[in-house]
Amino acid sequence: MPVLLRIRGYRFFFYSLEDREPPHIHVAQAGGYAKFWLDPLTLASNRGFRSHELTVIRELVLENRDLFLEKWNAYFSGQE
Questions:
Q1: Which of 63, 73, 77 has the alpha carbon at shortest distance from 24?
Q2: Can you list the residues of the chain whose pLDDT is less than 50?
Q3: Which end of the chain has fewer CB atoms < 10 Å from its terminal CB, N or C?
Q4: For the whole prediction, is pTM greater than 0.85?
């Protein structure tokens, strides 16, 4: 499970066997969990985060989307 970023108490990551899904990022913090599709940026799932937290997380994903896409593509392009 590559962790791409830790910021403001949130951990952003993807799982190593997710290459059959479109690019996305998972985020976790203190029992909360969410998943965002990266293109277009859309909330895919949420467990435990309140709406104001999701607003903050969405902004963090948006700010770092290029990094997440770059890391996703680099990681999964090397796997067959």
A1: 73
A2: 80
A3: C
A4: yes
